[in-house]
Design brief:
By secondary structure, the protein is mainly α. It is built from 5 helices and no strands.
Length: 126
């Protein structure tokens, strides 16, 4: 697990740098920097808006039927999107914006919950 995290922390910045240089080669440095900043601003706005709507759903469902555990995956995806918005770069910016779209967020959340439950079930009930 530690090796995978080290690899991710090494590869993601390298991929970001390569993408920035490729974009700058084709578009120019000014446009590349503007696109990077614009994607972060748009993503931050979308993340804030998505967080508010998600929190409204959680509060509504909490009032009706108790704590909505199935919404926790979506909250984790939104927190990840917000972290991606802080990180400058085209790859993390696009991923952060994608994670704020409700349909994509719900699908990724289902995959995340299924993956976590399979790992837990696999460890405890073998």
């Amino acid at each position: 697990m530690l090796k995978r995290m080290f690899l991710a922390f090494l590869l993601v910045p390298l991929v970001e740098l390569v993408l920035i240089f490729v974009l700058a080669h084709f578009l120019g440095w000014g446009i590349t920097i503007a696109l990077t900043v614009l994607s972060s601003l748009v993503g931050a706005y979308l993340a804030r808006r998505s967080w508010r709507s998600w929190w409204g759903l959680v509060r509504e469902e909490w009032g009706r039927e108790g704590f909505p555990v199935h919404r926790l995956g979506e909250g984790a995806i939104l927190l990840t999107a917000m972290a991606f918005m802080i990180t400058p770069g085209p790859l993390t910016g696009v991923l952060g914006i994608l994670f704020t779209i409700p349909a994509i967020r719900e699908r990724v959340s289902r995959l995340l919950v299924r993956w976590i439950s399979d790992r837990l079930l696999g460890r405890f009930w073998r």
